[in-house]
Amino acid sequence: MTHLAQQKQFECAQRATAEEALKGLSDKEKANFALALMMKVTDPDAAAVLRFAGNQLAELSNILMREAFERECG
Description:
Layout: H1 3-22, H2 27-38, H3 47-73
């Protein structure tokens, strides 16, 4: 197995472990944890990913707030 393949396999295992560890958290706790992680990013090369994530999160929050409003107000 090449070094790159080993690295990718290791990253997949890390992600699976992290997802398993987060299973018991509420959605609100997951969001707070994710925000805390993103706020620790210091690599300028990650700026585009952070911008994209922010835009996607804004859209998702709008959808969820609209659903909550419709549930409350009909």
